[in-house]
Amino acid sequence: MSEMDYCTCKEIKGVHSVQTDRGYWDTCNGCNKPLEEGFHYDDEPDLY
User: Which of 8, 11, 43, 48 is the most exposed place for a label (fewest CB within 10 A)?
Assistant: First the structure.
């Protein structure tokens, strides 16, 4: 992801989570782009 893909809103009024296969992103409600430091890895063990 390049820097242009991250949220650049001056004031973030809320966030929601967007799940991926390895974790989830905190995502801005206003522009619907992920926060630059907003990735969280899932802690669950791989069952496959």
Answer: 48
